[in-house]
Amino acid sequence: MTVIVRDLRPDVRADAEGFSDTRRLALPYMLSTPESVVHTLTHVHPDAHFGQLIAEEDGEIIGTAQVSVAHDSPEPGQGSANIYVRPDRRNRGAGSLLLRTAQERLGRLGVTKLFAWVLDEPDNRAFAERHGFRASRSAWFLRLDLAGGTLPPRQEPPSGVELRTAADFADDPRPVFELDAATSSDEPSDIDVEFTDYEAWLEEHWKHPLLNRDLTTVALVDGRPAAFSVAYTDGDSRYATAMTGTAREFRGRGLAKLAKNDSLHRARTAGCTEAFTGNDTGNEPMIAINKWFGYEICAKEVRYVRELG
Ligand SMILES: CC(C)(COP(=O)(O)OP(=O)(O)OC[C@H]1O[C@@H](n2cnc3c(N)ncnc32)[C@H](O)[C@@H]1OP(=O)(O)O)[C@@H](O)C(=O)NCCC(=O)NCCS
């Protein structure tokens, strides 16, 4: 039985299904569908050189890698390779082969510092360390039971604040882009992000198949978007927050809580039964907000880094 690694073929449905099935089994706290897999591959900015690798054994997809150059970071030479092997198909060489292929590809593209998310389990961490990586920041995955749990009651927006959905911006999403760009750069991370390309954002984020515009809430202050909470859904009762952010000048007024609470209530009404979110372990305000909603930590991921070349 031989494991091979190859690129996902976006026009082959079985590739996209095998990729998203593997991701869901290995990482059940993140949403993935065949449509989102193909969308990401075909819509990420060309400068990211984004690739999705598949490890296959006797025709069965058993591992995946997402490989990219951090083109939207102000620091050049950074890239990432996030590798997930099906839990029931480990120790067959898939992870090592995916990593080697990813490193060779990114090395040729000038990447000298490689980041990889690793689920905090002894085998995974030992794998990363054997391959020359050292641990860096970490992040929690959190889960909220929307079906059985209780949400804080809906709040009445304070005077001057109105709640809208992303669907209300369908004709002109630029204000949502501006808020996303202003807040994403403040999210704690190993790789600083700066996004300025509206057309690329429309393609990659606004048209993302998991984005649920009706469940995404935007809080306006005096008519201006000030805070938002971005909802992803997979059509199968699972909801995930892709981003919550408040523009700097509006922080500390309860607007992130207000926007996310509205989104969660909408999600529950729409039939979503569980909600996921992920936070850098140092993001104290966001963790405080999520605990207030009743989210519970369900897993931890550690960002590993190694120098290439
Ligand atoms: C995190 C963020 C969304 C918070 O927005 P906000 O509108 O200021 O949040 P709110 O006012 O609704 O609530 C903040 C809560 O965090 C608490 N908080 C603030 N700083 C804190 C800290 N250092 N430790 C613990 N709790 C803290 C506040 O006390 C408040 O809780 P309270 O209402 O019980 O007092 C905002 O800082 C942001 O946009 N950051 C950058 C983007 C980001 O990191 N997003 C999260 C991605 S996962």
TrEMBL record:
<keyword id="KW-0808">Transferase</keyword>
<dbReference type="GO" id="GO:0016746">
    <property type="term" value="F:acyltransferase activity"/>
</dbReference>
<dbReference type="Pfam" id="PF00583">
    <property type="entry name" value="Acetyltransf_1"/>
</dbReference>
<dbReference type="InterPro" id="IPR000182">
    <property type="entry name" value="GNAT_dom"/>
</dbReference>
<dbReference type="InterPro" id="IPR016181">
    <property type="entry name" value="Acyl_CoA_acyltransferase"/>
</dbReference>
<feature type="domain" description="N-acetyltransferase">
    <location>
        <begin position="161"/>
        <end position="309"/>
    </location>
</feature>
<dbReference type="InterPro" id="IPR050832">
    <property type="entry name" value="Bact_Acetyltransf"/>
</dbReference>
<protein>
    <submittedName>
        <fullName>GNAT family N-acetyltransferase</fullName>
        <ecNumber>2.3.1.-</ecNumber>
    </submittedName>
</protein>
<keyword id="KW-0012">Acyltransferase</keyword>
<feature type="domain" description="N-acetyltransferase">
    <location>
        <begin position="3"/>
        <end position="158"/>
    </location>
</feature>
